[in-house]
Design a protein that fits this description.
Strand content: 15-25%
Radius of gyration: 17 Å
Order of helices and strands: EHEHEHEHEHEEEHEEEHEEH
Shape: globular
Number of strands: 13
Number of helices: 8
Largest sheet: 8 strands, parallel, barrel
């Protein structure tokens, strides 16, 4: 996998980590453009290769009345508008085989959710589009088992595959990051650390997922130190009103300071090679 092959990605010669970042779900055009514009200001300043993230629908919700999207085509068109407006690549989740070809018409990277990464038909459908495939490690899977998910993509004739670690179940209502998994999985594909989802506290009795956003910088710093190729984070200008995963999001106002610190750590790590 070579990130230079991702359409419109910038700053690939900076020797920085790359960043997948944006809102959890596409809630509307104005919010998506507002968030993207701010992230791009920061990543251009810091020379971080950047991919805008937004889910066009949320299929894995705790309750039937939870927000699941504004309409598939409407949300996908917003993702395309973000890409065309700011000249950046985009990534979105897919949940069903039929989503793969549809979403591939609008975005540059197809993401397989952690709960679905063992679904062979879904992984192969994503691979067959020829798009970059981002495989999220299942919360229930070992790092070593991800080599089989990667093999499904490559055996389908697509070498463009990335692994994202989003934590491992720790009891019933918490997640933990095993940082040993980062160097382990780098033997199979570039590895991204999903910082915000690793700080979820799922399966709360209310049916609304909780989180520990106060630990975002701690986990992100550790990810850079242990060799993560990329960082994944969800952000919003007001997480309290986000329609999905607001409890573990990074406030957009805190993004520049965090990324500045991570770039400094990356430079130090690079100097130790």
């Amino acid at each position: 996998m070579n990130i230079d092959k991702i359409p419109q990605i910038k700053h690939t010669n900076s020797d920085n980590f790359f960043l997948l970042c944006g809102p959890c779900a596409i809630e509307g055009e104005d919010m998506a453009l507002r968030i993207a514009e701010r992230i791009i200001e920061v990543t251009d300043k810091l020379k971080i290769p950047y991919i805008f993230k937004g889910s066009f629908k949320k299929a894995n919700r705790s309750r039937v009345d939870s927000f699941s999207g504004i309409g598939d085509e409407k949300a996908l068109k917003i993702l395309r508008k973000v890409s065309e407006t700011f000249k950046v690549p985009t990534v979105t989740d897919i949940h069903e085989v039929t989503d793969a070809a549809m979403a591939a018409e609008y975005v540059d990277i197809l993401q397989i959710p952690a709960f679905l990464v063992r679904q062979t038909d879904l992984v192969v459908a994503a691979a067959n589009t020829g798009k970059v495939v981002n495989l999220k490690k299942g919360q229930f899977m070992s790092p070593e088992s991800m080599k089989h998910a990667v093999a499904k993509v490559k055996d389908s004739g697509n070498e463009q595959v990335v692994i994202t670690d989003r934590g491992t179940m720790f009891g019933y209502q918490d997640m933990i990051v095993d940082f040993r998994g980062i160097p382990t999985m780098k033997a199979y594909a570039p590895v991204v650390l999903d910082v915000t989802h690793s700080l979820q506290q799922p399966n709360q009795t209310s049916g609304v997922t909780g989180g520990r956003p106060d630990m975002i910088e701690t986990i992100a710093r550790a990810g850079i130190v242990t060799g993560a190729d990329g960082i994944f984070m969800e952000t919003h200008y007001d997480p309290s009103i986000a329609k999905s995963d607001g409890a573990n999001m990074l406030h957009l106002d805190h993004l520049e300071k965090l990324l500045t610190n991570l770039v400094a750590i990356r430079k130090t790590v690079n100097s130790l090679k």
